[in-house]
Amino acid sequence: MASAFQPRTALREQITARPAVLLSGGGGVGKSQLAAACAHQASADGTDLVVWLDATDTARMVTGYATAARRVQAPDARGEDTEADAKTFFDWLAATSRSWLIVLDNLTDLEGIAAWWPPHSAAGTGRVLATTRRRDARLSGGGRSVVAMDTYSPEEADTYLRDRFAGAGMDHLRDGQSAALLHELGHLPLASAHAAAYMLNEDVPCGDYLRLFTDRRSRPDTVLPRAADTEGYGLPVTTALLITLDAVQRREPVGLAVPALRLTAHLDPAGHPLGLWAEAGVGRYLDLYRTPGAEASEVTADEARAAVHLLHEYALINGDFQDSARTVRIHALTARAVRENTPEAQAAAGMRTAADALLGIWPETEHPDAELTAVLRANAATLSALAGDLLWQDGGHPVLYEYGLSLLHAGLYEAAVTHWQRLTADAGRLLDDGHDDIVLTRAHLMDAYRRAHRTDEAIACGEQLVADLVRRQGADSADAKAIRGSLSAAYWLAGRHPEAITAAEQAVTDAEELLGEDDPVTVTTRSNLAAFYAASGRANEAIPLAEAAVADRERLFGTDDTATTTARSVLAGAYESAGRIQEALALQSMVVQDQERLLGRDHPTALEARLNLVGTYLAADRPDEAITLCERSLSDAERLLGTDHPTTLAARSNLAHLHAQTTSAPEAIPLLVRAAGDCERVLGPDHPYTLQALGNLGIAYSGAGRHSEAIALLLKTVSYARRLGRGHPDHMTALRSLAWCYQEAGRPDEATSVMERFAAEVLESGAHDSETISALFPLVGALFRVERGDAAIELLERLLTTVHEALGQDHPETLLVGDALAHCLLQMGRARDAIPLLERIAAGYERRLGRHDGETISAWGAVAIAYTETDRAGEAITLLEALVSESTRELGADHPAVRDAHETLAIAYLKAGRYGAAARAIGRMIGGTLRRRWGWSRRG
């Protein structure tokens, strides 16, 4: 609270005597301070609830009401609809017998908040206090009283001056001219504070100061432009300020106080770090603009700090030297008066110096000191707004970029979008076409859009930038390649998964060629590709890539680097995709702990890590822990991001789906209905989160026996997803869900028809992830059941061509599809066609896994069985006898693969009519089984 503050007893009595008060007055007269004093007093007097709201924005007020509703546990406040919760809070305020005070600070739009003015308290225990600069007649009415607030009364001003002098033991300064002086100061608290500080430091009585003030006020350089004094308080403040500056420029360190104050006036009034004054550029600025006539010399950090202390002594700033982040503060009216009296060239130099100094003290790693970086962002924002184009000289000043990146790092994504939009516009307006900063600002804007889940804007921005770069620099543009790599993440978020993987694969190649193996961009690009592979079911490709990325990050940047923890999260996802659930759970749990420790529990990245852990808990069959964590994460998302943020909506949808999986479907359906409705309302019908929520609801309807509702909903979902294009993953997922519901409803023909549409899109899109491929196998079975085996074989042949071209002949998915096709051929009596395919599959397993792996032995056994179907029993027996001998020697007689080989050999013997040999093979197989089951040894 400022030293000029007085209790204003008469005003406080008017406020406390009335249930609804608007405290009206100009800027700087102490409205907020008086309101704060009233709020503290209400709390001390035992008021049950005191709520302070920033009333400059209606939406912010409504959010504050909704938060208060949950704090007081108002009935029906569920945290799902902000406006509904705010209205619930109003109902609570109107009905409760508990005492309450609502403070609405800096109210500007009375008409706009008419619907959100707190209600009348039926019990007479509630009060409302609002502060505003408005003075019009429309303030009153509706039970509201207006209390006008102006500067100090003559008595308050006199009391202030008397107390200040008495506290310093300098009562002699108060003479017969004190009342006249206070009148000239306009009884303004801030001007009185400047005058009192001067008189105390210079030992000047009121009469002498009055003569100085009158003389200074009459000089032309004191007069402010009319537009700069809208409150009518600028002239007294400016005059008192200039008198003080005349004095401080003569005090040690001589000549430095004035340029120091001018630099301060261009930073955040709420404060900046004292460390800024140790920057070398600040010393050079102070030396260049020190008072004419002062001895020039290199200004040291100690002298710069001494200038700050001098300004504090004269009340030109407030130096809180116990606060390392906001040490140096200045009143906004003082700062404005200083800026209005600063020569243009010096102001420009001061702003560039301040920008350099902020950049110099910006920490390399932000997360250890979140408070400091928040203060630096506030100062950069103030400086940027005041400087305008002055921070653009052959490109934007680096502090503008540091500020924007810090917004992204802090998870302030919408603020980051606004910042990068402005920088992009400034770069386009001020720089020549093709300047590097034009590319850089647009690239950061694309990233901000992506992180804010504004994927359509991110993709449009990135694709346009790539087109421009190719046009100017050619098809091999390194910049265009880098942007294409960044676009992969936006493609993925938009559901354009094949494009995302293709872009990420090319980005890895480009980064390795352009930047080298150990560049941070290269390592991050590999990790991103691993994440896409894992999410596409390509775990065997994802795991080695993700493990290498983690090892590289730990080696290059340490274990506590935030990007290292992100790489670990990708690896956890790859483990989960591969079925290595316990490894995934341990690693993802560690990621959550690290993200919360490094970034803080409330950072969006930490929230995302918790939501990832929810899925891992579910995969580990720990649904209770998954639900508990998801409920907590949903609460965090609502508090941090708002009830309608995409991450919040996804968390709510996931929680509803968890309940559907762990409770009976009828109990979960209301949650799923609400989640799907919220997603559709906020995100639109074809957003990935909406489609997922609708699909989950359809499955729940079907599980509850409500097949007609399920099918109708999923038909609508398929229609929505169709807008994304044939082959889009969300459209194919919707088709699969619809086919399942038809099957559950006892409508197999329609289920088969839908699955054929699904298969056509799979083949058209070239999708080859394991989940999609596995989803086709039920269709193969259905086609065989309706005697359409040829159609099943044609489908598998086309699918095999797709995966072979995409993944290679020995990839697990290629071998899986080939094996399915071969067995379909056998089932159709086409053993001769199946044999070459089975031989290739067995050779592929042998190359991948070795001659004596169980999969390899099983594959060669399938070849031998096919031989027996084509009168090649002799070849089958020769193959199997060699296989049994080798596998017994390598694996032992009791290994399951050896038992299977004996069984296959016995079948071959039987088909060849060698019944004794078959009996011996069966005996060895049974003996191996008994030994494994009962633990018998050969001797036993």
UniProtKB/TrEMBL annotation:
Pfam families: TPR_10, TPR_12. It comes from the Bacteria. Signal peptide: none annotated. InterPro entries: NLR-like (IPR053137), P-loop_NTPase (IPR027417), TPR-like_helical_dom_sf (IPR011990). PANTHER family: AAA+ ATPASE DOMAIN-CONTAINING PROTEIN-RELATED, ATP/GTP-BINDING PROTEIN-RELATED. This is FxSxx-COOH system tetratricopeptide repeat protein. The lineage of its organism: Bacteria, Bacillati, Actinomycetota, Actinomycetes, Kitasatosporales.
